[in-house]
Write a structure and sequence with these properties.
single chain, FAD/NAD(P)-binding domain, 2 domains, four-stranded antiparallel β-sheet
Length: about 240
């Protein structure tokens, strides 16, 4: 059974893990304390039915999927957590608060040396290949980083170039008059996701939450659909 290491608890990596869990040994490493928290992925999905292939009706109801004119919104962190549960149930080993401290290449693949939060969480992992999706992983200021090498055995999901973005959630009632160049995603619970290249617009009653991150330059590459499709694409290549 081939072994695959996944860097980042992202939509693409979780879908890949679920698709290959029955035929591969999958290990996922996440720097943050939880899968999906904080999430840098906008909560926008064009085709909500793509999630029904992975989540139960109860989980879909929990997401409170909200219709828009050209798609749907949901809380992306909730969807990530549900997918992480499914991956774990299928036997995927998930290490949170864990970083790769060293990576070496050998004739048979790669060796990862990792260190986690607990006293017994350090170890090594022999991999045939690695999928590095750190581009979608939240990096807090001063946070520890993974240390990987350049290798043909390490793949990065394709989303094009990324650009710095300011994201936040505000009361939907505050977002009735907002600059047209600002991207907004109203959600079911009365909040709206707001994405802008800098904090040019500030809601009257203040932000509920904010995040600084990077997102793909092309808007269509930021959707949950795009990330799911990329995870599927890579899984086919690795089968």
């Amino acid at each position: 059974m081939k072994s695959i290491g996944l860097i980042g608890g992202t939509f693409s990596n979780l879908i890949l893990a679920i698709e290959l869990a029955d035929t591969h040994r999958i290990t996922l490493f996440e720097l943050n304390a939880e899968i999906g928290l904080p999430s840098v992925s906008p909560g926008y999905i064009e085709n909500k039915n793509i999630l029904t292939q992975y989540l139960t009706p109860q989980q879909i109801d929990f997401l409170q999927i909200h219709p828009l004119q050209n798609g749907f919104t949901l809380r992306s962190e909730w969807a990530l957590k549900h997918l992480a549960v499914l991956a774990a149930e299928k036997g995927v080993e998930i290490f949170t608060r864990t970083r790769i401290t060293e990576c070496t290449e050998n004739p048979n693949g790669l060796t990862l040396f990792f260190s986690g939060a607990g006293p017994n969480s350090a170890g090594t992992l022999e991999c045939d290949s690695i999928i590095n999706d750190m581009q979608w992983t939240y990096q807090a200021p001063g946070a520890k980083h993974h240390h990987l090498i350049q290798s043909t055995k390490i793949q990065t999901p394709h989303f094009g170039d990324f650009t710095s973005m300011h994201g936040g959630t505000a009361l939907t009632s505050d977002c009735l008059t907002i600059p047209v160049e600002t991207i907004t995603y109203p959600r079911a619970e009365g909040l709206t996701e707001v994405w802008q290249d800098s904090e040019k617009w500030i809601p009257e009653k203040g932000w509920i939450e904010t995040i600084q991150c990077t997102l793909p330059n092309h808007l269509e590459k930021r959707s949950i659909d795009a990330q799911i499709h990329e995870g599927r694409r890579i899984s086919v290549l690795l089968k």
